[in-house]
Specification:
Radius of gyration: 33 Å
Shape: elongated
Largest sheet: 6 strands, mixed
Structural class: alpha/beta
Mean pLDDT: 85
Strand content: 5-15%
Number of strands: 13
Distance between the termini: 146 Å
Strand order of the largest sheet: 5-2-6-10-11-13
Helix content: 40-55%
């Protein structure tokens, strides 16, 4: 009985053990199944992440490439497309930040690919700046470009043994340098130029590419541009360079008096450059570079846009809700930059700017170009005085079969501007044939004002013309211009500030005289209410008074003109203005270069 009971117990124990074993195996199997399910789910999730990344990447590339097909003029056509492109790139940038670990392991995401995304976002912001003239977008561009450099996203591009990646890296450097030049980050510019030179050497020695000469020319252009723009070195107490911006800000904004008429506002600008001997970089001549800053307000630095911060797309531009797709309020007037445009392009952009003008808006046309001259002995219309060359192209001679004297097709004549005088028009001509534009009539009764450069400069300055035109320099930075004509190449910052106070005094006095002048064309007062146009008018007066006092500029061809002209007795030859200039040049210790006041009366 005992034995039977023992066997029974054994059988039950064996059965129980078997059940437990089977149960354990089932648990293991279920656990493995669950684990496999979890792994499969994780892998599926990772596949979805990679798929979504690829989708966003491809869509972003398509939208970015589509930007090339958008018209470069007008406001309505491009803003919605830009908004969609920004939206996709914002999602793409945040997505790769959130899923970097998965993308590193499953997609083999490389750092240069992250850099490429950041570079594209930087380019978007830069092109948005070009299209809107909002300088704060330059800070956004800088944020992304600086992050690429700080994090070394392109550092291993050369190890990929792909020449196209090296070209992308070189283009990134060139774009970054342009942005830093516009933001006046000159110390960083010099560092980037050194790095670019090294990268070009590595590129050419490794691949021996066909575009080797092209990149050498780019580097040469950059160096020449920086050197030519540095006309006056301003130094602090430790002899370190001080870099100043010459954009409009509350400190240099000229005073405004109460005006008797409703003033106009500058809304559209065309900046045209075609000076063959002038240095340029990235389709910007020095004159264009200086003028575009002159008609911009100073951008505001933001804490989120510091050099070493992680960039995130901050301002995502979207089209406004108002019907005509224009921003409700714009800090800067909208501008087009046209480097050596053919006449067809120039007319299209002029027409677009004219079309986009709102009520009480002003179109500003700035032209820095070589002159087109004519042999007409008795000119009687707007096409007989010549004009300015917009492009160096020449039409084939075989078109002129009858040997008829043809006018240059790529010349902008004063008569070409007549249709634009239907709306307020402000013209600045810096050319050796600028005076051809002094006869523009006012057929439609709207205000028209033309500021014209001297047609010539003293021979001692001829070899300096590649550094930009003198008239534009006066409009950009009056104190730099007066230092330039007085051969002042270095100045302590304290002396600069003291001299600038005299310039400010001149502007205040000139403003007072202009507003109270009895014999003044109403156009001056109508334009004078706008900050930028007021600045340009007062700097024109400064230029005129300074050059007439300077001993080397006494020839009439060395003086600027305006149409309609300003009153000489009441403004241009006013002793109070001359006195301020004499005090200024005395502070600068160049009094001997200027005439006595009575000598010019």
């Amino acid at each position: 009985m005992h034995k039977s009971s023992s066997n029974l117990t054994y059988r039950f124990s064996s059965v129980d053990l078997t059940k437990r074993s089977n149960s354990h195996l089932e648990d293991i199997s279920q656990h493995a199944t669950r684990r496999m399910a979890i792994m499969n789910e994780a892998e599926e999730q990772e596949r979805k992440i990679v798929h979504e990344f690829c989708h966003l990447l491809e869509k972003s590339k398509q939208l970015f490439n589509g930007l090339r097909d958008l018209p470069q003029y007008g406001h309505k056509q491009w803003q919605a497309y830009f908004g969609r492109t920004f939206d996709v790139y914002t999602k793409l940038w945040k997505f790769q930040q959130q899923h970097r670990q998965v993308l590193d392991s499953k997609y083999a995401l490389k750092r240069w690919q992250i850099g490429e995304i950041a570079s594209k976002i930087g380019q978007l912001y830069y092109h948005y700046y070009l299209r809107t003239s909002e300088t704060n977008y330059l800070n956004e561009t800088f944020s992304f470009y600086a992050a690429i450099r700080a994090r070394g996203y392109y550092n291993k591009a050369s190890k990929e043994e792909r020449s196209d990646l090296m070209v992308k890296k070189l283009r990134y450097y060139a774009r970054f340098i342009v942005v830093c030049l516009l933001l006046k980050k000159m110390k960083l510019v010099k560092e980037l130029v050194r790095e670019l030179a090294k990268q070009i050497d590595d590129y050419t020695s490794t691949y021996e590419p066909e575009d080797q000469l092209e990149w050498s020319l780019v580097l040469g252009e950059i160096k020449s541009f920086i050197e030519a723009d540095n006309l006056v070195n301003i130094t602090d107490v430790n002899s370190a360079p001080v870099v100043l911006s010459h954009r409009l800000n509350p400190l240099n904004s000229p005073p405004v008096e109460k005006l008797p008429t409703n003033h106009l506002t500058l809304q559209e600008i065309l900046i045209v450059g075609n000076c063959c001997d002038q240095v340029k970089f990235s389709e910007l001549t020095l004159d264009m570079f200086r003028m575009l800053q002159t008609v911009e307000r100073e951008p505001q630095e933001e804490a989120t846009q510091m050099f070493d911060s992680t960039p995130t797309p901050g301002r995502i531009p979207f089209p406004p809700d108002n019907g005509d797709q224009r921003p409700a309020k714009r800090e800067n007037p909208h501008k087009y930059l046209l480097y050596k445009p053919n006449i067809s392009q120039l007319i299209v952009f002029l027409s677009s700017g004219f079309k986009e003008l709102p009520p009480n808006g002003v179109l500003l046309l700035y032209m820095s170009a070589d002159g087109c001259f004519t042999n007409v002995k008795h000119p009687d219309d707007g096409y007989d005085y010549g004009g300015i060359a917009t492009n160096s192209k020449r039409e084939p001679d075989h078109i002129n079969k009858r040997n008829v004297q043809l006018k240059d097709i790529h010349c902008l004549y004063p008569g070409d501007l007549y249709p634009l005088t239907r709306k307020p028009l402000f013209v600045i001509v810096d050319s050796d044939n600028s005076h051809a534009f002094q006869y523009i009539p006012r057929y439609f009764g709207q205000p028209v004002l033309v500021l014209m450069s001297p047609e010539d400069i003293p021979p001692s300055f001829h070899d300096q013309q590649h550094k930009g035109n003198l008239f534009t320099l006066f409009l950009h930075s009056p104190l730099t211009a007066i230092c330039f004509i007085c051969n002042i190449t270095e100045i302590p910052h304290t002396l600069w500030e003291k001299s600038q106070s005299h310039v400010d005094r001149f502007m205040s006095e000139a403003s007072r005289l202009l507003v109270k002048c009895r014999n003044i064309d109403p156009a001056f007062l109508q334009f004078y209410g706008d900050d930028f146009l007021r600045l340009l008018i007062l700097r024109f007066i400064f230029c005129r008074v300074v050059l007439r006092l300077h001993r080397l500029f006494m020839n009439n061809n060395f003086s600027p003109r305006s149409h309609p002209p300003l009153s000489e007795p009441e403004i241009l030859e006013q002793p109070s203005l001359k006195k301020v200039i004499i005090e200024l040049v005395s502070v600068l210790d160049v009094r001997n270069m200027f005439n006595e006041i009575e000598e010019t009366d």
